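Support reply, case 0932

Customer input (verbatim):
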Amino acid sequence: MYDRSCIRLRQKLVRETSIELPTNTVQNNWHGRLNLAYANRSGKTQIIRNEMQAPLKVQRPFYPEGKEVCHTAILHTAGGVVGGDRLSLNFQLEANAKALITTAAAGKIYRSNGQQAQQNIELNIDSGAVLEWLPQETIVFEGAIYRQDLRVELAPQARILLWEITRFGRSARGEKFCSGEWRSHSEIWQQNRPIWIDRQWLKGGEKMLESPHGLAGKPVTATLAWVGEPVTAEIVEKVRALQCKTTINSTTSNAGVTRIPNGLLCRYRGDSTAAARDWFVRIWQLLRLSFADRPCCLPRLWIL
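Our regenerated output:
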């Protein structure tokens, strides 16, 4: 069993000091797992398998928009991720199940002691199922070393909406991502064919922070992908119009919209995680109305 007092001390040191923890100071890293399976039972989406290993936990599911869509929130009970931690999430949606999965709070990737922290996400979505994977933003602290791998197996007639919003450095405290490393690898496959593969790598430092091919002086990047059903040129233009409305008071933010095979891809680079999420929620609303004939329903955790 983990020594919880040691874990709490580790987090306090990483959060509040600039001390580099030696590699052998903390040996009990978290190796958390969360396996969830959803099924449609008489028109209601239910969790039929729930396997958890600390520090990952899932809160009780709720149904703010009716029994058809199951809303689920993931909780990281340790409060954040440090070097050497390993997190594995596996979600299975059986045929015609519909689930919205988010996180209970913003993710925190603390400064590393030299080890890499990893998160692996496997999503399997059967025919007719729809998954909305909408985690809250991730804050990557100065000196963090982190890698996330996300792989989606999408059956024919299945659909997924996913996003990732990342802040590099605790900007409100004047912190910049001057050292460390962040990697994000995302893949969506359908019938053994790649639909979308996205690989990003940012190495901390002034060159990356200021380069127009890096962060261009902006601390926030975000990606939204919709895959599983083609979008029309009309929808693309509507999303671009939303972009203009969202960034009108932030002229230095950059955003882009493009069609991908069987879907839509949107990018944001700017100063505000709230602005990124606001734009993404507008896109989500448009896609919901276009493909599901229902408005989006914000998870209650976002508005508490």
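We compared this against your earlier run and they match. Two observations from our side: Residues 30-303 form one domain. Confidence is low (pLDDT under 50) at residues 1-26. Please reopen the case if you see a mismatch on your end.
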